[in-house]
Each structure stands twice: as structure tokens, then as C-alpha cells.
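Progress against Task 2.4 (sequence-to-structure conversion) is shown through the following example record, which the project officer requested during the mid-term review.
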Amino acid sequence: MLRVAPVGSLATLKADGNPFASLVTVATMPSGEPVLLLSRLAVHTQNIERDKRASLLLVEPGGESGDPLAGARLTLVGEMSERDSDPSIRRRFLARHEEAKGYVDFADFGFRKFTIRSAHLVAGFGRIVNVGPDQLLTDASECGDLLAAEESAVAHMNEDHGEALRLYATRLLGVPDGDWRMTGADPDGIDLRTGRLRARLDFPKRAKTAQELREALITLARAAREAGQARAAE
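C-alpha cells generated for the chain above:
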């Protein structure tokens, strides 16, 4: 949910102390830390500038249909940061939310990170647990080589290996076919999207370098093709 949910409900505190909930679009950094693109004109941003404490509710894609309480959801508790101009935030956010290109450069908009202090996971009836940031986030401190290569790796996969991305999605994840694109890579896996659909594919083992990222992508492509051959032989 942390990696895949494209939208969330952001709860902030008004000047009178009452809670205020609003809908926001969400992306993540390589560590899994959520990032949001917010306007200074919005009530939730005005609330944050007075009191950084906030909560973010994420719902597992697909949990919105049928019985909404039967799906999984994750409530994050923490604080919002000041505006952050890190170019990697902009790149990763726009890769997930292309529609934001129309307003990202407006003067009142800026990126902010959500620092997770604690979380509450409801994975279905009777499956409820509190989790800490260390159980949700990925330690990317020793993965500088991979992170430096992420942008070029994503561009290369989207430009030259679209078919492999489709196989990742359809054969390894079992999601509907489409023009699947890679939106990000991190030590634990890659993020994919097509239209409104989002998907997450984990690596067989953790990758720390650009070479290990390349090897992981090749291994996944091979596994996807073998899965297709096995189905054809049945």
C-alpha cells in the first residue's frame, strides 16, 4: 500500500484544534517515505504550516470495491516537512502523477515529505497490527550507486524494454495488460503504472548497485518469459 497507493486521505489540525481531512495524491521516495505535492492556498497546507503533525490514510488498490471494510488500509502518523526542492522528489512524483505536470511549477505548489513515526495496519477483519517505521521503510543509505542510476535505468526500461515491463505486470503480478511503464526503482523492487493502475514488483533479493539492479531486472524478465512458456505448455 505504501508503494502502490496513488491517493490518500490527509488529516491535519486546524487552528482551533479540530481535525481536517482532505484528499491528496501520493508518491514515495526510494526509502518508501511518502511525498506530496501541496498548494500553499489549500487548507491542509495552512494547517501544516502551523502544526506539522498529520496522519495519512492509504487504501490498497481494489479495496474500494465490494465491501470497503474488507480491504487492507494503512494509517500513518507523523509530521509533514517544509517544502523540499530535491529534484529526485519531482522526478519520482511526476512519473507517478503525469497530470501534475500542468501545475507543478505554479508558485504556490511545493513538495513535502511525510515523516512516519508510527503506523496502524488493517489487513482485513481480525488482521490488525501496529507497525513502526523500520518495518515499513527501506534503508537506502548504502545504495548510492543504485539511486544514482535510477533515473537512467527507468528511462532505458521505458524506451527499450516495454515488452519486458508488460510481462512483469501480466505474468509475474497477474494484473491486466496495458502500456505498463516503470516509474521508479529502489533496493527492494520497482514501481509500475499504466493509466490509473499501479503495481509493485519486488526483487528476488535486495539490490544495492546499478549492476545488481540490472541483474535483478534481467532475472525478472527471464522468470516472466518462463512463466509464459509454462502456461503455454499446459
